[in-house]
Design goal:
By secondary structure, the chain is an alpha+beta fold. Helix content is about 35%, strand content about 10%. The chain has one domain.
């Protein structure tokens, strides 16, 4: 029997189908990869910074007695004294009134008061920090082991923890927010509880998370 090849029309149709499937699948693959990056770097940052605090305590004493950030001229001075020797960085530098810490994995940390720390899983998002969204581009942590106020109970005598100020301790509150605008949901607000919500889910982004990556 004579050999029969594919016609041009059949080839074009097949390529078209492959193109449609790829167009549908690639965005999902990219999104899933971005989620894994965020999850992995958040968990790594949390572990690394708290290990650094424990190591620093050996030399600088209990964290509850560390000098307040207001005692330093610039937040980078606080970072230099308490953290620099115990974390791997590519750069620690002042950016006007902010201290910026760059990590080898491409993530970045910034702080203006050595109490609230914004972690950027992807350092390039810091370049547009004015428009960066909490819970998507940056994730907020607190380090205030000396403050014993009731609203601060999730941070008192703790190391670096996701922002949980005034949190009631329930998963529902992380989504809805006991303080207006803090909840990790689609209703607006600053979504500052999103970091804690991911931690609550074992450092995995929940299915009902308000952002796509």
């Amino acid at each position: 029997m004579p050999l029969r090849g594919f016609t041009l029309a059949e080839v074009l149709i097949t390529l078209g189908i492959i193109g449609v499937v790829a167009a549908l699948a690639i965005p999902t693959l990219i999104s899933n990869n971005n989620k894994r990056i965020v999850e992995t770097r958040l968990a790594k940052f949390y572990s690394t910074m708290n290990q650094a605090v424990e190591l620093s305590e050996v030399e600088n004493g209990p964290k509850e007695k560390w000098d307040a950030s207001s005692s330093f001229e610039h937040p980078c001075d606080w970072v230099d004294k308490y953290l620099k020797d115990y974390i791997k960085t590519t750069e620690i530098k002042p950016d006007e009134e902010v201290c910026v810490v760059a990590y080898p994995d491409g993530s970045l940390l910034s702080t203006s008061d050595a109490r609230h720390f914004d972690f950027y899983p992807k350092a390039q998002n810091y370049e547009n920090k004015e428009n960066a969204q909490n819970g998507k581009d940056l994730f907020t942590f607190r380090f205030v082991p000396q403050e014993s106020l009731s609203h601060n109970r999730w941070h008192y005598k703790k190391g670096f923890e996701p922002y949980k100020y005034a949190w009631t301790g329930t998963e529902n509150d992380l989504r809805d927010g006991s303080v207006a605008g803090y909840g990790c949901n689609n209703t607006g607000g600053n979504k500052i509880y999103c970091t804690a919500y991911i931690q609550y889910n074992n450092w995995k982004i929940p299915d009902d998370y308000p952002f796509k990556f």
